[in-house]
Each structure stands twice: as structure tokens, then as C-alpha cells.
From TrEMBL:
Coiled coil: none annotated. InterPro entries: DHFR-like_dom_sf, RibDG_C, Riboflavin_Biosynth_HTPR. This is Dihydrofolate reductase family protein. It comes from Streptomyces xiangluensis. It comes from the Bacteria. Residues 2-182 form the Bacterial bifunctional deaminase-reductase C-terminal domain.
Length: 190
């Protein structure tokens, strides 16, 4: 069965974005980008919320057309463009160039579980609000947190307050040359 994986950068104090949505503190150099590319190549698709989708579509579908873009960026652009995407949004309408995207109006746990049972690679979830909804329904199998060596002091917390406790077990760690640390957790008992 396919897994649903959450993969996000987070500050040491637990924020995925600054107070005004800033992401300029993320550390993505060529080494990290190559890691991302290798990790997502075999995936079966992306599950995004509207905000993440609009952020990604604003740059990635044509990023490989920029001759000055580093090779890992051009490679990611091709992977992103070709990967099937499901966008959860009540307001987004598919555009004329929808970049291999299906719009779904709400998270229905039974539909997500059925999607996990389909053949293909794992599914990557993107966006903290969508991740909170998936977590509320206990649909996330793996958490990949890229801890950036920065303390923001305030911002948008990665995990919203919840009454649910999710037990995890550490599956792997990796330290990158720029100081970024990957913590990969799986649901306990999975």
C-alpha cells in the first residue's frame, strides 16, 4: 500500500513560515535539491492545498526553461510538471494549463484510503493546513521534517493545536552540508 508522506522545512522552534508567510530562511542548496529530486522521482503524486498549489504553479512548471537555473532546479521542474497532483480546494477552478492537476473540494478519509490502495508510488502531502486536516483523520504515514538551523521567534507553527496525540518512531536522520537536518518519522505501529 502507498504511504502518505508529509515533507516540510521547519525552524528549530517549530515554524514552517515566518509571521507574514516568509520562506526566505529555508536552506535549499544543490545538495538538498538533489536529495529532494531523488526522493520524489518514484512518487505517485502530490496532494496539495490551494496555497501550496498556487505557490508551486507560480514558478515550477516553467523553471526548467531558464538557462541560468542550476541543474537540480531544472530537474525538479520537469518532475513537478509531470507528477499527478490533487489539489484540495473549495474555491480553485482548474485553469487551461492545469499542470496535471485534479481539484478535489474536500478531504474525504474513505477516498484518501482508497487512493492509498491504488498502485503506484507514495503520495506527498504539501501545505500545513492540508496536513492538519490529514493528521486529524490519521492519514499521514510518514513525517519528513527538514530542520533549518534558525530560530524565528514567531511565525506559523507547523502543527496546529489538537487534542489528538500521534505516536511516532524515528526511522532515519540525515545531516546536510549546509546544516539542515532531516528527521524522518513513521507512525508508531505502522
Amino acid at each position: 500500500m502507498r504511504k502518505i508522506t508529509l515533507s516540510l522545512s521547519v525552524s528549530l522552534d517549530g515554524y514552517f513560515a515566518g509571521p507574514n508567510g516568509e520562506l526566505d530562511w529555508h536552506l535549499v542548496d544543490d545538495e538538498v535539491h538533489r536529495h529532494f529530486n531523488e526522493r520524489i522521482k518514484p512518487m505517485g503524486g502530490f496532494l496539495h492545498g490551494r496555497v501550496m498549489h498556487e505557490l508551486m504553479v507560480g514558478y515550477w512548471p516553467t523553471a526548467d526553461e531558464d538557462p541560468s537555473a542550476p541543474e537540480p532546479v531544472r530537474e525538479f521542474a520537469a518532475i513537478y510538471r509531470d507528477m499527478p497532483k490533487i489539489v484540495y480546494s473549495r474555491t480553485l477552478e482548474p485553469g487551461p494549463a492545469d499542470w496535471n492537476t485534479t481539484v478535489v473540494r474536500e478531504v474525504v478519509p474513505e477516498e484518501v484510503r482508497a487512493l492509498k490502495e491504488q498502485p503506484g508510488g507514495d503520495l506527498g502531502i504539501g501545505g500545513a493546513e492540508l496536513a492538519a486536516e490529514f493528521r486529524r483523520h490519521d492519514l499521514i504515514d510518514e513525517y519528513l521534517l527538514y530542520v533549518v538551523p534558525v530560530i524565528l521567534g514567531r511565525g506559523r507553527p507547523l502543527f496546529a493545536e489538537s487534542d489528538a496525540t500521534t505516536r511516532l518512531r524515528l526511522a532515519a536522520t540525515h545531516t546536510f552540508g549546509n546544516g539542515l537536518v532531516l528527521l524522518r518519522y513513521e507512525r508508531a505501529g505502522a
